[in-house]
Amino acid sequence: MDITKKERDCIVVIHDNSKPLPLRLSDVAGLMNIKPPTAHELINRLLSKNIIKKERGMITLTDYGNEIYSEIMMAHRTLEIILTRSGVNSDKACTQVEKVDYLMDTSSIEKLLQTIGNPDKCPHGKPVHAV
Amino acid sequence: MDITKKERDCIVVIHDNSKPLPLRLSDVAGLMNIKPPTAHELINRLLSKNIIKKERGMITLTDYGNEIYSEIMMAHRTLEIILTRSGVNSDKACTQVEKVDYLMDTSSIEKLLQTIGNPDKCPHGKPVHAV
DNA sequence: TAAATATTTTAGCATAATACTAATTTATGG
DNA sequence: CCATAAATTAGTATTATGCTAAAATATTTA
Lengths: 131, 131
What we know:
Two copies of one chain form a homodimer. By secondary structure, chain A is mostly helical. Chain A folds into two domains: about 55 residues, Winged helix-like DNA-binding domain superfamily/Winged helix DNA-binding domain (Arc Repressor Mutant, subunit A, Orthogonal Bundle), CATH 1.10.10.10; about 45 residues. Chain A binds a DNA duplex through helix 3. Chains A, B: GO terms for molecular function: DNA-binding transcription factor activity; protein dimerization activity; transition metal ion binding.
């Protein structure tokens, strides 16, 4: 399943801001700096792809959405580690990797991850295999 | 300067097929599997970005276009080497890397390249710093 | 050179992703 | 039940991508 950059960002925003309470459409709009109708459109696309679900206004990732999130994060942290180990500063590494972490196949990323020694922490201290 | 995936592909096609003769619009269309009007549109975008030039129907990269091409190739080969060294097969590495080689900053790629030992050949034997 | 062929360009249209304003509808809370 | 807040719809816009059909240019060749 291919997703766009905005869909990727939306998945990450929903995952990372669902505690203590699940997000509503207006929260997503606020967090993504877009207007509610734009968020509505984006959310509808993610709903139709079965990546998120909405129950009484509460937006959460589906199991499938969580899988996608985990894959994005695995790629993100793997590539981030590779860049920072080469001397790219953390913030720069993060912005660079954000552009590509949702594009590559998990099978290739897994091989990379193994090569760099299966670290369980990324440069920011978050687990490489997030849920 | 940001370019799109199709613009990236067009730059590569123009560079890699300019010998023995420079390409014409219909050649670009043929090589990219798109119809001439679509190629026309794409070529116009690249002309207005000063990436290519057209003289008597002959399409070539500008100096700026060649710079962009070199950066794409440097990123391509750097990432390709990293993937293949992790055990990803050449063809797979290439298709994965094509998705991202035009998106990342050259400064980060240069650091990666240094880390992997500044090889002057990529897995396919082409120089890492192509002109 | 003139006719035939090939190439390029224009016009018109379509889709997907992104984004907005304004208006309407639906919820929620007091 | 009413006021406010949130969500949705309607309408519009832009950029990138892609098409067909037609018109305009070039090029080639007879």
